[in-house]
Amino acid sequence: MLRAGSGHRAELEIKKSRFLAVLHRTDTEDAAREAVAEVAAQHRDARHHCTAFVLGASRGTTRSSDDGEPAGTAGIPMLQALTQFATPQQRAGGHPGDLSDVTAVVVRWFGGVKLGAGGLVRAYSAAVTAALETAPLRRRLRCRELSFTAPHADAGRVEAEIRAHGYTVLPTDYDAARATLRVLVPDRADDLADARDGLAGITSGRADVLDGAPQWRDLPLE
After folding, report:
1. Same domain, 61 and 114
2. CATH number of the domain encompassing residue 13
3. 3 state DSSP class of 152
4. Which of 128, 136, 133, 174 is nearest to 155 (CA)?
5. SS3 content of the chain, % helix, strand, coil (to 5)
6. d(Cα 135, Cα 9) in Å, to the nearest integer?
7. How far apart are alpha carbons 45 and 197 in whole angstroms?
């Protein structure tokens, strides 16, 4: 998914027509439609503002619009570009793309040369793909925060050991008496059990590990 708050852009010129692709991270259908309206308002001089969006952890909500272009030549190719896009890491591992919670708007200024149906399909798809290739993407993971306290004198050493074991460490909180260390773990039974065992080993069994509520986290692409 896109990094929070990003509105990423890419522009192509094909046979004198300009295609401006704008990507927004959107978590709801209302947010997607607001993003579309915002881009359209910014570019009222353009003839077409074609759109596609994919929403939900399972990508269950998809919509597209040709906005006056011949049917099937803009919105659907844009939607396919979103749903079929895979990061370099996914492509290298042979994994399919799983991009979601993103809205694409492609603004077209007609340059006087007709592209034909096939040309429009390729142009709208290429515009979205060009924006995705350089967009600031993140991965979203359902996680659970595990926390425990340690004496101030031990906090630095314990945190370093936790990092050395490959866990994602959140910022440590300090109060007058103790330090609270927090570790982010995928919300899967095996991962949580392994993490609790690992933390017990690092702290020689002295840590009273508390489970936080499940939460979604944006993490860097691996």
Report:
1. yes
2. 3.30.230.30
3. helix
4. 174
5. 35, 35, 30
6. 8
7. 61
- pLDDT, tens digit (0-9, with 9 covering 90-100), for 88-112: 888 888 878 888 999 999 999 999 9
Q: Count the domains in the chain.
A: 2
- Separation in Å, CA 82 to CA 50, 121, 179: 14, 14, 44
pLDDT band at 87 (very low <50, low <70, confident <90, very high): confident
Closest C-alpha to 194, from 172, 166, 159, 164: 166
pLDDT band at residue 217 under the 50/70/90 scheme? confident
Gap between the Cα atoms of 36 and 187, Å rounded: 34
**Statement to judge: residues 108 and 178 lie in one domain:** no
In what helix (H) or strand (E) does residue 117 lie, and over which residues does it extend? Answer: helix 116-133
The token pair at 126 is 């290429």
